[in-house]
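In the laboratory, one determines a bound structure by crystallizing the protein with its ligand and collecting diffraction data. In a computational setting the workflow is compressed into a single prediction: the sequence and the ligand go in, and a structural description comes out. We illustrate the idea with cytidine-5'-triphosphate.
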Amino acid sequence: MSPNSAAASPLDVGVLLPAAGRGERAGAGDLKQFRPIAGVPMLLRAVRPFARHPRVRQIVIALPQEHVAQPPEWLADLLGQRLKTVGGGATRAASVRAALRMLDPACTIVLVHDAARPFVSQAEIDAVIEAADRGSGALAAIPVSDTLKRAAEGGFATTVPRDGLWRALTPQGFPRQLLEDAYARAGDELDATDDAALVEALGAPVVLVEGRTTNIKVTSPDDFLLAEALAHG
Ligand code: CTP
Ligand code: MG
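The predicted complex, in structure-token form:
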């Protein structure tokens, strides 16, 4: 049997999906992560590429508490041992921490992916897992291509050199122990917007793997227009 066949893959990857935000910048309407993009709820689009992956053993979704008690029907139908929900916290990091606590101990590699990124590719997932397999943290990221400006005092612009700068995306992946250590050390009032930052703070190696510009984070109402276009593309 080929070593790449599904039967040969270990079921050792756990996925945490922080989806417990309030989507305040996305404007009024349904909860951002439940809103349909070309007919398919954003959260479902974010889950599917991981659910299809042959190494993924379990996916834990952190949701606002009221939606754990009463998940939407399209989600309730999918829940079970492989796909679980947990109540999130007041910050993204608190939501990730809650999901990590629930994760099956057999998952020795952990990926974290924002529910607000509905267009993650299989290649990005594979690249992050591959780096975590080698023992380091990893994140999908994109080299900055725009010229960067800082709004200086008085509203005047100054230019920031962009050499070596990347935009951090998700997925981010880690050997489980590394992520557990990072969260254990971070304490309770942690406010990191990504998990790699907590692992970097341990002094552990984190590598950048090139992601895709289509792996957008849906944040503002305009991002929904982009998302619709990508979904139809
Ligand atoms: N998130 C979470 N728990 C929180 C805050 C955020 O699980 N307390 C999740 C969001 O649901 C999202 C991801 O973290 O999938 C990235 O956050 P962001 O894009 O900022 O979403 P929101 O926090 O929902 O949006 P906003 O900041 O505009 O309120
Ligand atoms: Mg937020």
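The radius of gyration is 18 Å. Keep in mind that any predicted model is a hypothesis to be tested, not a measurement.
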